[in-house]
Structure formats: C-alpha cells, structure tokens
C-alpha cells in the first residue's frame, strides 16, 4: 500500500471487525509502519495533557500514537469539509464567499 502512495488505514477495534462464524477466530497482529519518524516538541496545558493521557489509555494507545491519530483524523475531516464546501459552491452560486471589511469596500 505505502509503495503505491496509499495511506495505511487506522487499526480496527476488535468489536468493529465483522463477527466471526463457526470455526473462525479473530487474530490480532502487529504491523510495523516502515515510514520514518520525526521527533517534535509541543506545549500543552497540564489539564489537557491529563485528558489526552486518559483518552489514550482508554483507547489502548500511547500518548504519541493517540495524538497523531487524533490529529490525522481531524486533518482528514477538515480536508473533507473543505472539499464539501468547494462542491457546494460549484452547485450553488449563492454559497460563494463575499468579501468583507476592507476588501468589500474596495470591490464596491
């Protein structure tokens, strides 16, 4: 997948996997992500970090993995929201953004 430029899908929770039939079983495997890693430093309020740690633990993930998964999920949502806005604007001319402030004054 990665060689073809596709992203790895997020792992599925066991309860999200199709139910097994008689004679089948669910097997969990660990897959190493071959992409290189980069170390970053971030600043976060102590209370927010505690929330992140609790959520990461509940999800069975480490802090870094949880934060990356949440950020990637948000980025995908933003990308899809932007795509939806572009799609709507091509269908509905009234959805076009109007200039505001100084830009609006200059266009009059």
Question: What is the gist of this entry?
Answer:
The protein has 108 residues and is an all-alpha fold. The chain contains three helices and no strands.
What portion of the residues fall into strands of 2 or more residues?
A: under 5%
The 3D shape can be described as extended
Helix content: 40-55%
| Count of extended strands | 0
Number of helices: 3
Low-confidence stretches: none
Determine Rg (CA atoms, Å): 21 Å
Q: How do the helices and strands follow one another from N- to C-terminus? A: HHH
Q: Summarize the biggest pleated sheet.
A: none
Mean of pLDDT: 78
Structural class: mainly alpha
Structural account:
45% of the residues lie in helices and 0% in strands. With 108 residues, it is mainly α. The chain is extended, with a radius of gyration of 21 Å. The chain has one domain (2-94). The protein contains three helices and no strands.
Relevant terms:
mainly alpha, 0% strand
List the helices and strands and how they pair.
Blueprint: H1 46-58, H2 63-91, H3 101-107
């Amino acid at each position: 997948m990665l060689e073809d430029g596709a992203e790895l899908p997020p792992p599925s929770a066991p309860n999200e996997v199709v139910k097994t039939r008689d004679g089948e079983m669910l097997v969990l495997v660990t897959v190493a992500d071959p992409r290189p890693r980069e170390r970053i430093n971030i600043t976060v309020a102590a209370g927010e970090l505690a929330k992140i740690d609790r959520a990461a633990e509940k999800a069975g993930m480490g802090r870094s993995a949880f934060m990356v998964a949440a950020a990637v999920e948000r980025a995908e949502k933003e990308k899809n929201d932007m795509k939806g806005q572009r799609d709507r604007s091509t269908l509905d001319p009234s959805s076009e953004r109007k200039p505001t402030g100084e830009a609006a004054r200059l266009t009059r």
